[in-house]
Amino acid sequence: MQKVLVWDWPIRMLHWSMVLLFTGLIITGKGDGDNMNWHFYMGYGLSAVIVARILYGFLGSDFAKFKQFIYHPIEIIQYSKALLLGRGKAYLGHNPVGGIMVIVLLLAMTAQWVTGLFTSDEIFWFGPFYGSVSEELSATLGSVHHTLPNVLLALVALHILAVLYHELRFKERLVAAMLHGKKKHPTKLEKHASTPRVGVLLSLGGALAWLVWLWNIPV
């Protein structure tokens, strides 16, 4: 078994940033409202992290690219069946089920922060686009924004259970791999994840530009 660098540092940084920000958003969003300012700040931060991750999905390292883990529906179904039977071939990057989970989580979290831009706590804090839509539409988006966290929590729980299943059933150290970036592989590979400097600069630069623009929108 050789160790292969799969998840380069930008992917690991963005992954754990999402974990921390999402956790903070859940805590502040479901609290008594005293920390609503932090909820807004972390929502802005999460939007920037997801923008960076989406850009890096096109401009990043090989295993980070969406084209590497978007599989045909038939392959997803076949792998799901094998997984339920305790089988399934090993993938260096995301397997078919893990790949679709990444896409679903990114889409759901994007829907969460986008709807947050149009909502308000009806006291002090207003999303930057709150006044650009009708009250009826704002109320609808607010309803979605307050419902989605429960869906996201269910998806995150499913994601954690899947990781634990792989850890216990297949002895695949996914948590450790997301810390140091390396996974074991039985054959010698010539390709390791290499971090493209231009991809990093464009992804992080685009996210920073988005954050600055968002921050300076008059409310």
TrEMBL record:
Keywords: Cell membrane, Membrane, Transmembrane, Transmembrane helix. Signal peptide: none annotated. InterPro entries: Cyt_b561_bac/Ni-Hgenase (IPR011577), Di-haem_cyt_TM (IPR016174), Hydrogenase_cytochrome (IPR051542). Gene3D superfamilies: Transmembrane di-heme cytochromes, Chain C. The chain crosses the membrane at residues 12-29, 41-59, 97-118, 147-165, 198-217. GO terms for biological process: respiratory electron transport chain. It is a multi-pass membrane protein. It comes from the Bacteria. Residues 6-181 form the Cytochrome b561 bacterial/Ni-hydrogenase domain. One of its GO terms (cellular component) is plasma membrane. One of its GO terms (molecular function) is heme binding. It is found in: Cell membrane. This is Cytochrome b.
